[in-house]
Design a protein that fits this description.
The complex is a heterodimer. Chain A is an alpha/beta fold. Chain A is built from 8 helices and 7 strands. Chain B folds into 2 domains: 271 residues, Aconitase, domain 3 (2-Layer Sandwich), CATH 3.30.499.10; 180 residues, 2-Layer Sandwich (Aconitase, domain 3). In chain B, the strands form 5 sheets. A 5-stranded parallel β-sheet of chain B has the order 5-4-3-6-7. A 5-stranded parallel β-sheet of chain B has the order 17-16-15-18-19. In chain B, strands 11-10-9-12 form a 4-stranded parallel β-sheet. The chains are: A alpha/beta, B alpha/beta. At the A-B interface, helix 4, helix 6, helix 7 and helix 8 of A face helix 2, helix 3, helix 5 and helix 11 of B.
Chain lengths: 198, 472
Amino acid sequence: MTLMPFVRHTGKCAALPRADVDTDQIVPKQFLKRVERTGFGPALFHDWRYRPDGSENPEFELNQPEAADATILIAGANFGCGSSREHAVWALAEYGFRAVLAPSFADIFSANCCQNGLVPVRLPADAIADLVRRCRVGGGGFRLTIDLEQQRVDDGAGFSTTFSMEPYRREMLLRGLDEIGRTLLQEDRIAAFERSHA
Amino acid sequence: MSAPRTLFDKLWDAHLVHRFAEGPVLLYVDLHLVHEVTSPQAFEGLRRAGRPVRRPERTVATVDHNVPTGDRSLPLDDAIAAKQLDALALNARAFGVELFDLASPRQGIVHVIGPELGLTQPGMVVVCGDSHTSTHGAFGAFALGIGTSEVEHVLATQCLVMSKPRTMEARFTGRLSPGVTAKDLILALIGRIGTAGATGHVLEYTGEAIEALSMEERMTVCNMSIEAGARAGMIAPDETTFAYLDGRPRAPGQRDWGRAVTAGRQLRSDPGAAYDRRVDLDAAAVGPQVTWGTSPGMVTDITGYVPNPADFPIVEERQAVERALAYMALTPGTPLEGLPIERVFVGSCTNARIEDLRSAARIARGRTVASGVRAMVVPGSQQVKAQGEREGLDRVFREAGFEWRNSGCSLCLGMNADVLRRGERCASTSNRNFEGRQGAGGRTHLMSPAMAAAAAVAGRLVDVREWEVGAA
């Protein structure tokens, strides 16, 4: 699958400063029966976003008016833990997020992000705490620029820091590459491996 | 002479197809397990790109997440689930992949049938679009869960692009006490290192307590590696491993058996091999574990108490505990022993193999499920179910008041009709106590099969060690 390249993005932030947000919360199981990659946006954080009677839960962070139309999610440690469901990433992307910033990510979730052009930005816990504060103070006006080429996060008002990312993943995201097509360029090597292990 | 290598190093090196200039490698996959929930989009991707499944003979599919565990002669009453099952059947046929469907006597949870068939073997790289693929590491395999895009990648290329994870040794010294199980070992480890304690690492479980475990117990331990954040968990193969595999339908046959065992014996960490990290745990000091919160790391001995959020110095942790206690409707200082439950689930890829059912049946035999409690036993596969019935376990459970059902993931994730109702408290042998995991508003306490069976009888959480005495 070819992706939209991610080079640089400036957008509005929303904060969800909770630790260990698992993929069961991001997309509850009752929404995993679809056979498509689309249609998961409405399921995002479903059991937190909605009350048992189906009405919107006004206390949930993303339901705050300030969080409307956010494209950058500032999250807590170990974000995306638990189930391998890529549906979680599809839901975040379809909802409108282009990047998630957190002190740490679960491994499978992080790999799934890179497959879908959703950029997982890992920053130290104190930097995330600072961003959460700035987001609150900003009251819906807090915007960040994520520059993947320069590997920098900047709010244009004093917060500026670099982040690291595996060069291979960064390249994939920057160019929106089709990983399968790329691997198939190594066909000779795969075939040789198979011959020598037959 | 080359440097001493860990078991994981050996597996990694043996599967290297190519190193990309930017760092990661192409790793060859020996066995790809497929199920209905995380595969339809992957097959659709192949179809759109006009790509075949590269090695259908290394790809095996089953249905488990979505399937009903009641009467299989009836049509599915969930039309969307039925569509997903149909999609897998169609994809398996179109791409030449073997499928163990609802009609098959070999159907079951993907992580139960792989080992049961002898598909999972020492030295393999095993992947599946499911985080509990770590289960297969019990055989000395590198087994990991992947997302759907990677499923498509493996279908198309039989390879995975990956950077080398770090290694972590979890050494369990001493022997398990009576009434304490493999489930308690792994829960205690997760309690110790936390749910992100092994992120970015492959865990290798070593030590006397691990060596003494049966294969099924080792699978329970490796199964929950992901709950410690690990990329995979593994245990070096030994005579226990070979004895388990011998004679299984897809294990190496007589002609290749000697060679397979000889190769398997090489699969252990060399003396002096360096792990990036190490944690030690005294197995003899571990008691029966019960979770109290909404993350598997929120766990303590059955003799323990619900903690006080005020005792957690880190703000984020304190808030997490507060949230968990509110969700679980628990008050700090409450003893876990005696906590009333309404539901019991014996099942899941963690604890639904025959030894698990035997362990629960030993407690249930001659006793009765407490009034007001609904208890269900969901065997991990139709083969486990048949074996249980040959041993009369179905009668033991039914006579005690448990439901005896068909195999599937069932109440572990509640994708089918087996769900908790809002507010119900469940003693569960599964692997995740996340909010809503077993049903929106449901409250899960993770524990071993014997502990869950005892809770069913008592109608509350109890210390099974007081019951083991005199149990047949």
